[in-house]
Design brief:
The chain contains no helices and eleven strands. By secondary structure, it is mainly β. The radius of gyration is 13 Å and the shape is globular. The model has no long low-confidence stretch (mean pLDDT about 95).
């Protein structure tokens, strides 16, 4: 079982930036793909971005193109989501997700392992 821990959420004004981080609860755990999805109140889960262990982008939501960047520090076994030019519609709980092997063929919001989520609130 892979447990993931997110951090970095918070409240910002529109146009601001936040950086989310995600680490496995056990540092030696490896995964083949990782990513972020989000869920706003009353809305369905939405994939945001996904990346392979080698750094290739696997998923990018149209709604965040040009504003969000995903990266992975293999040495620290940490996943990041840099969010710039935030908009009120980005307000949601952001979840880190990961999977292995064939599980990586699924879209990021369906990855097997996920964290507890971190709240991002963007005010206008």
């Amino acid at each position: 079982q892979v447990q993931l821990v997110e951090s970095g959420g918070g409240s910002v004004q529109a146009g601001g930036s936040l950086r989310l981080s995600c680490v496995p609860s056990v540092s030696t755990v490896s995964t083949d793909c990782m990513g972020w999805f989000r869920q706003a109140p009353g809305k369905e889960r939405e994939g945001v971005m996904g990346i392979t262990s080698s750094g290739s982008l696997t998923y990018l939501a149209d709604s965040v193109k040009g504003r969000f960047t995903i990266s992975r520090d293999s040495a620290k076994n940490t996943l990041y989501l840099q969010m710039n030019s935030l908009k009120p519609e980005d307000t949601a709980i952001y979840y880190c997700a990961a999977d292995r092997g064939d599980g990586c063929r699924r879209t990021v919001r369906l990855y097997k392992y996920r964290g507890q989520g971190t709240q991002v609130t963007v005010s206008s």
